[in-house]
Amino acid sequence: MLQIEGLTFHYPRRELFTGLSARIPTGVTLVTGGDGAGKTTLLRLLAGDLKSQSGRVDCPSPVFWTDPKSTAFDQLTVAAYFKSLRPLYPQFDEQALADLIEGLSLAEHQHKPLYMLSAGSRRKVWLAAAFAAGAAVTLLDEPFAALDMASISIVIERLAESANHLTRTWVLADYEAPRGVPLAATIDLGS
Fold first, then answer.
1. What is the CATH number of the domain that holds 11?
2. Residue 76 sits in which domain range?
3. pLDDT by residue (tens digit) across 83-121?
4. Are the C-beta atoms of residues 97 and 82 closer than 8 Å to each other?
5. How far is CA 176 from CA 34, 128, 165, in A?
6. Alpha carbon distance 96, 128 (integer Å)
């Protein structure tokens, strides 16, 4: 279980959270709210990418998080990116990765550098990695953005399977709950 206690975070000209507390159980939790409510910021705080002004986050490891807008891996091929993750995640599932590469139509992109991929294909790479990593906590920011309907169906199916997992936590930041995915909890950051 992931726990947030008294979390306070402000950008220089914008206050986002003051004393935010939440318990995030295993399964799938939705972080929702309007534009600028802090959904992505909360994921970045949970991942350790940002530091809060006060409060604490107790988060089991390993945590899987990739900012969908990241350019950090741009020079790696898709295959090299997946290879770089294997030592970081002891529960990395090769069969799940192979199934996702096929299901998300990533086979033709294996030897392309990430910077050559469309936004949708890059997002598919992050999602395949997320589902294969086997991390204790997986953080997904707007997981359906820029995806085709077939890929959305695969992601929903994987999330629905993850909803009943007893040892893993999935935190999704999005505007609405994905249909067909039972939620363990919802954190509404308001508008």
1. 3.40.50.300
2. 2-188
3. 999 999 999 999 999 999 999 999 999 999 999 999 999
4. yes
5. 10, 22, 21
6. 8
Q: Which two tokens stand for residue 80?
A: 């090299």
User: Taking residues 12-32, what's their average pLDDT?
Assistant: 95
Contact (Cβ atoms closer than 8 angstroms) between residue 62 and residue 154: no
Q: In the chain, which ranges are continuous DSSP H helix?
A: 39-47, 78-85, 94-103, 119-133, 149-162
Say how many domains are in the chain.
1
Q: How far is Cα 14 from Cα 12, in angstroms, rounded to an integer? A: 6
Q: Which residues of 65-74 are buried (b: 16+ CB within 10 A; e: fewer)?
A: bbebeeeebe
Instruction: List the one residue out of 96, 108, 110 whose CA is nearest residue 64.
Output: 96
Kind and range of the H or E run holding 72: none
User: Which amino acid is residue 172, in one-letter code?
Assistant: L
